[in-house]
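Final report, closing paragraph on structural work. Over the funding period we assembled a curated collection of sequence-structure pairs, and we close with a single example.
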Amino acid sequence: MSNPKFVYTAEFIASIDRVLSRERLSRYLTATKDDIGGALELYEHNIAISEALFGFLHGLEVAVRNSIHYTLRRDLGTPIWYEGGVVLPWSTTGEPLSLTPVMTDMVKKAKEKLQPTASPGKMIAELTFGFWSNTITRRFHATLWVPSLHKAFPHAKVSRKIIHLRLETVRHLRNRIAHHEPIFTSRNEVYTGFPSMPYIALPKLLECAEWVSTEAALWLKEQSRYQQAVDLLLEVSKKGITL
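Its predicted structure, as stored:
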């Protein structure tokens, strides 16, 4: 049985400024012409869409980082390649893998959170998504992407630049959800807060998983609440509001 709809009592409405704040509801109040009940319903929609997407994004992030790690661990011949310094097997001059200062700092912070004896698998899980998207940047195009890393995305028919842009978009969207920021819009896309791609349609998120593994993408789609997020976005797009 579904839960009965919550009743917006006078007491609850009176507490809005204290427990939610009108500033937090401002975009919804604007969309509903100051209808507090309608604004609260839109706020609830944002929560529902965020909840529905978070599990899918969790699976997507795990798939991306594990595929990158699997590929580089195999091709560089060491499970701790993320520490840098390993000689690139395809280099004719013995060039070592040189991480950026930002990535080195990410590795350092991840190590500080773990026991000294932590396995590479624990490190992989502790490194932030930003570390993984950094491996796809132009800096590593010749040293990692061309000779090896493209194999982490075997079904991608787009450039490294597009993959990096999409992963950065996913990272910004995930962070917005984690920080309880609004993501849903009335345009059948979610808002990412990423200047280079401020809006993204949900099939574009699914496509990221397909780049890694079509089978894993299907699994994520069916076993997460991805379709619920699609349905919720479509429902909002039909409300006749502008967000």
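Strands lie at 190-191, 199-200. The two ends are 31 Å apart (CA to CA). We thank the funder for supporting this effort.
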